[in-house]
Amino acid sequence: MTDNDGAYTLTINADDDDNGTEILLTLRGEQFLHVIDLDTFRMTADNRMTQDLQLSQSPPMPGLGGGAGCCLLLFALVFVSTLLKTVAGLATPRGRAAFQGFREPNYHECPECNASIVQHQLVVHFITEHDYDPVEAGEATGLVLRKSWFTGED
Q1: Number of domains in the chain
Q2: With contact defined as beta carbons under 8 Å apart, do 108 and 145 qualify?
Q3: Domain range for 34
């Protein structure tokens, strides 16, 4: 039996035949020897024998259950978040196209005619629409693209 302070009380009824009997109490791996001495018992005022047992062990360390549970909860949250983002992305046509690897092309403004041209068509545009030779078309495309790479610098 345990009281509010965590102290155990063990009550043993003993007769005259049990006088001198050794009791070995094992508690959390520690052993305590107690000898039933009825002569000493009869001389006490309250007819009780008290033996104070102190465990030399420290309390057991908390298990890994809390840490493992927290880790599993974290992985579950990341998994659910990833799953929801994937489902939400696949719900729109643009999201499905991005999931398949399609990217929106970059558009740039032509410095000659101010038309909006797809990046991979700039050289062709300079050659066919503005009669640039291939080297000049490549240099002009480089100037346009360089402006997009280094914003604010020419």
Answers
A1: 2
A2: yes
A3: 1-56
**3-class DSSP state of 109:** strand
Domain presence at residue 84: no
Q: Is residue 93 situated within a structural domain?
A: no
- For residue 22, being part of any structural domain is answered with yes
Residue 104: is it exposed, middle or buried by C-beta count within 10 angstroms (0-12/13-18/19+)?
exposed
pLDDT digits (tens, 9 = 90+) for 88-112: 888 999 888 888 888 888 899 999 9
Q: What is the mean pLDDT of the chain?
A: 82
Among 56, 74, 95, which residue terminates a domain?
56
Distance CA 63, CA 76 (A): 21
Given a contact cutoff of 8 angstroms between Cβ atoms, the answer to whether 32 and 53 are in contact is yes
pLDDT digit string (tens) for 50-62? 666 666 666 666 6
CA distances from residue 153 to 38, 40, 91, 113, 119 in whole angstroms, order as listed: 102, 101, 40, 22, 19
